[in-house]
Structures are given as structure tokens and as C-alpha cells.
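Z., the sequence and structure:
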Amino acid sequence: MGMNRWWTTGQHPWVKFVELFLVANAVAAVFSLGLAPGSEDWFTWTVVPDASARLLAVMYANAVVLGVVALRQPDWARARAIFVLITVFAVAATTMTFFQLDPFLAHPWYHLTYWLSGYAVLVATAPAVLVWQERKHGGRLPVGLPMTPVQRATGAVAALVMAGAAGALIVDPGAFSSLWPWRIAPLTGRLLGVWLAAFAVAYAWALWDGDWRRARPLYLAAPVTGLLLALVPPLHAGAIEAGAPLGAYYVFAAAIALPGLGLLPARTAAAQAAQPRETNPAVRAGLLAIAGVIVLLGLSLFAAPGETDRLFAWTIGAPLTAAFLGASYLASTTLAVACAAERVWANGRAFAAPYLIAGVALLAVTFIHLGEFHMDDLTGWAWLTLYAIFPPAIVVLLGRQMRASGGDPPATAPMPASARGLLAAQGAVMAAVGAALALAPHDAAALWPWPLPPLAAQAVGVFVLAQGALLLTASREGDWGRVRPAMLQYVVLATLHLVALARFPDTLDWGTAGAWLYLAWLVGVLATALYGARHALAARRREPAARALAQVA
């Protein structure tokens, strides 16, 4: 579609102007706050500490995501929940500015002029466009696809948490700092409060509207925003005060991400009656390309774990740690190839959650420990390039896939409740341990059976967390036919981890319970994986007959 046609079709050009203006201003803020936190030259006031600057960068990154999502909507009805957020935020942030002028006045006059002019454009246009479009195309619209109880509940919880935090931040940001891992300046706190209040209003609007197709654009940014919020404390561990309530912070980040659960496909009769959605050829090609890259990482680590100073992006001291990471990469290669081999999307989508988690988290870990990487060598730059490209590539592939027509085919090989429970239990344990290692490597290292320095602990934690997400996804699918790639990956993972342990048994202290618990865990994982792979492969052999019976019925 040409630019002129895009501009004149779908949403009104004035709606698109507001959305584009928001994105342009937010992108500039993300770069200045994300790349130069604490700088007095690159932002309109000095944000301290750097953790607060990165927190504001997350806020503006959320604005970029929402703006781009809104621009892609076909009409006003599907963009209006985001537009409500834009309008409330623009008016409230501008009003708040006049009550917090001192930090701006400490900078050159043109910084405040730039800030106010940007918000003045939004204040002059967004409310007027919102009222105009609502009178013309809005109001109480018919509900075409009702929101599910999960979508309503997660949106309501997020709205309540955001509204509560917004009220506390706006009224008394100093008192709120006692509930935060670091001190928040009044201007920073009140701007964050305005953002959260605008989000709460937008969720309330979406819940009032009740239509999932119109609410979905707002929900799309939730998991990304929650994940970025969770990454701020590890990036600024030095700013975290002793005894700081990190747990409360991560509960807050989880509540922000919670509406992402509403994006999981609902098992409706209408979706199952539709033609099965096929895996997009671009997705299959992208997965094979990913496999071709990460298999090289896996082979270098697993085959030569003692040569990481020459062959890998950073030097890993313990060969068992390198072999562990190599086994994880090789298992991820198996997952990519197996998912690419599935022609039906429902059978090959297991990679989405673990790949997104691993891609974003490993990129963050890279920046946290950039000084330990071999940036004077090709391996360091190759790693940085890979993980700069990987997360957006996954998002693009998933975006293309979600535009494909069709739905999920009927389940042909339901899992027994015991199998789903076992996968969920193992996934939950791995997710908890992985998250602890990734977010608090110094404190959580005691959970691991051999010593891990911070970089290695966070890398191991990311892979364990991603594996937990994969198992939880498999448990939720609840059908052997849809988890073949995950079960095959699980067999490869358990087998290679046992081989790595057999190669380097002296790394563990076998006089401790932790070493034997780790061995027992791997044996249990392998037994679960073999059981699951057996049933998943049997389900493939039964699929033609099951499809024929479904067509007759």
C-alpha cells in the first residue's frame, strides 16, 4: 500500500497525525533516556538516579509500541482505547508540568520550550480529535467478539494496580519511594503516576466497551512493558538500596504484564470450526534461519567448553557451565527445526514465549555485563548483533503469523490431567529458579549446584526461565499433537545436560544434597520428556484418522 493511500484510508488523517506525533516524540525520549541516562544535555531535566531514567525510558518505549499498534488499526473503533490513553496522558502531563517547574528551570530555557511545545501539540489536537471521532464513529458500539473472563479479569487487575500506584505517586511521591527499590524524585514520580493513571483509564474504557477486537491493541503492549520494567533493577543493581522491597516492585511489574495472558488464544467453538491456521512460510523460514545460527553457538559451547576464551562471546570459567549453555542452545535448535516442520500453527507455536523471553532478557544481560564480552573480537560483536536482531525479528514473524486466517483445529489427543499437572509443576519450578537467577544473581546463586559468577548466573537463569515458559505453554495446550516440538526439545535438553554432567562430574560437590538433587531432577526431566515424546509422536500417527472422523462428524 502506498503512503498516500495509507494516509487517506482507514483512520482519519488527524487521528494518524496524533499517533505519529506521539511515536516521534517518544522515540527521541527512549534514545536519550536509554542511551544517556543522567545526562544534563540530552533530556529536558536531569533524571536521577540512572535507574529512574531507564524507568522513564520504559514508559516512553510503551508509548512507541502503543502508537505503532494504533497506527496499524483499520478504523477508529479499534484504535480508540489507545487514543483515550494518549489524550489523558497529554492533558495530565502538561498540567503536572506547571506544578513541577523547578527541575526544568535548572536547564537552558529551550529544554522547557521543547517539552511544552511537544505536549501543547498533543493537548491541542488529541482531546478535540477524540471528541470528534467519538461523536462520529464511537459511543456504545455493538460487541462483535465479547471479552473472555480471563481478558476482563487481567485488565481489571492491571487497572486497579495502576490506579492505586498512580494515586500514591501523584499525591506523595516521597512516601511512595519507601515502597520502591530506589528513591524517586517528585517530578519523575508524578510523571510516572500520570502515565499509570492514563493506562488505568484506558483499561476501564476497554472493559466498558467489552469487545476484544477493540481492546486487544491496548493489551498488546502489556507483556513487553512488564518485561522491560522487570529488567530495570538488574541493570542498576548499584542503585538498589539495602533491604529495598524488590519483591513489591516485581509484583508491580507482573501486574503490568498480566493482561498479556488475555492474548493467549481462546479455545472457542468458532475458532475450532474455522479452517486450521497454517504456519506462515516466512515464519518457517525464519525459524530455520534461527536454527542455523544458534546451532553454531551450541556446538562451540558443548563440543569445546574449555575454549570459550577463543570461540565464544565471553570467557566462561567452568566447563560445565559452558556445556550447560551449549546443551540449551542445541535443544533450542531442535525446537526451532521441529516448529518449522509443523504446517499447522497450533502445532508449531510453542517457540513464541521462550524465544521472546530469551531474546529480550539475554540482550539486557549483555548490556549489564558488556565489559566482560570480547568486544575486541568478532565473537563479541557477532553476539551483540544477534541479540539486537533476534527479539524484533521474533515480533515481526509473530505479527505476520497472527494476520493469517483460520483457527485452531480440534484437539485429537488430549493430555491426561496428570501429565498436564506434571509439566506445569516442572515448568513453574524452572520459571521460579530461572527468574531468581536472572533478576538477583548474587542472592540466588545458592540455588544452583555449582558456583556461578553473575554473568553466567543470569545467562543460565534466562535459559531455565525460558524452559519453564515452554513447559507451561505445553501444559496449557493440553494436547499431545500440539506439543511435539516441545517434547522433542525436552528429550534433547535432558539428555545433553546429563551428558554434560557425566563429562564434568567434579564440578559438583557430591557431598552436598544439592548435587544429588540436581541429578535426580535431570533424571526426572528425562523420564517426563520421553513419556511426552512417545505420546506426541503417537498422536502424529493417529492424526489422519482423527481428522477424517472429525470431517464425518
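Residues 275-552 form one domain. Residues 513-552 form the longest helix (40 residues).

Let me know what you think.
H.
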